[in-house]
Specification:
By secondary structure, this protein is mostly helical. Helices cover 59% and strands 7% of the residues.
């Protein structure tokens, strides 16, 4: 798993909630607000992927910025050539995810609600 947040077209990212979302979608000046909000958001260092947020640390790589295909391909090839790196990430993700069987539990809840 690699989380990618390309910033080549920051003004296209306008899906904010609340006041930032309203400002970013205003006719005429929305593009300016979108650029300002997005650049402010990206300046702050934070975890963006849910597995990393749950763990409180970076397990899954999060690449933010002007992404180059060559760099991504090199990262993927490195993982394919060193499966122990993937196994380590997988083990850490398993520790974070919690108990197994969420889909079954959800299906049981839906079945009980339908009865």
């Amino acid at each position: 798993m690699i989380v990618l947040l390309p910033t080549q077209q920051l003004d296209a990212m306008r899906s904010w909630d609340g006041l930032p979302g309203l400002l970013a979608n205003l006719p005429g000046v929305g593009t300016l607000f979108a650029r300002l909000i997005n650049s402010w958001f990206l300046r702050k260092t934070r975890l963006l992927a849910w597995p990393n947020i749950w763990a409180g640390k970076a397990i899954v790589p999060e690449l933010v910025g002007h992404l180059m295909p060559q760099k991504l391909a090199e990262m993927a090839i490195d993982w394919l050539e060193h499966p122990e790196k993937l196994a380590q990430m997988q083990a850490q993700l398993r520790q974070v995810r919690g108990d197994r069987g969420a889909a079954q539990k959800l299906a049981q809840l839906v079945g009980e609600c339908l009865k």
